[in-house]
Every structure is written in C-alpha cells, then in structure tokens.
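Recap from last week: sequence in, structure out.
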Amino acid sequence: MWLPIRIDEQRPEPLYHQIEVQLRGLIFGGQLTEGTLLPSIRELAVSLKCSAITVRRVYQDLESEGLIRTRQGTGTFVARVDAIVKDEHRLERAAEELEQAIEAGIQLHCSIEELQTIFHEIMVRRKEETGKEELI
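Predicted structure tokens:
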C-alpha cells in the first residue's frame, strides 16, 4: 500500500516526527480507516527512503496512542478511532495552523484588526468558491 507521506530532510523536525504527524493526520482525517492494512516497517522505510528504525519508532508511538494495532504474523492495521478524538485532533491542527499564520502576521506588523479582516475576507471568498454556507 502506498501512503501519501513526504519527508523533507531540510526541515528542522526529525524524520520520524514528520512521518508520524502525516500518518496520524491520515488516520484522523479518515483517509486511512479502521482495519486498513499498513505497509510493513521495511516496505514503508524503503518507499520513504529512510531507515527501518525510524519507521519502527513511528509505528511504536502510534500503537502506544492506540491509533494502530500490530498482529503478529498478520501485519499492522489502523485501529478504531473515536469520533471525539478525531474532532479534538482536527481542531488542534486547525489551531496550530492558525497560530502559525497569526505569527507570520505579527512578524509583518499587522494589527489584530487587520488580521481579523484578512481572516473574514478569506472565509467570504472560500464560501463563494465552495458555496458552503457553514463557512461563515
């Protein structure tokens, strides 16, 4: 199974962290559903061009979080993830991204009012593009 995970050796985050964050996002985002068989540690390491030790750490971390389960001789599968946990993760990720955007605005000396205006304008534009009323 191919996973849409990309690692960037130029980023300051360790490779295992980059992989873990993306794999967690695929699970919480619903792209990987309960019971999905994940690639073996070796297969994923080869496809990402990293060490098996790196992938083993990712799998161990995600298994300790209860997001994946390993069955000896069968493989590693996505575990059942509670909807509340998915929602918490979704909101945490959105908050992290907004925080980065706000930090960029602060570095550019934008006022709170300017940032609020920009946010509102983007939401209006997105609503017009998608036709989704719930965006505003």
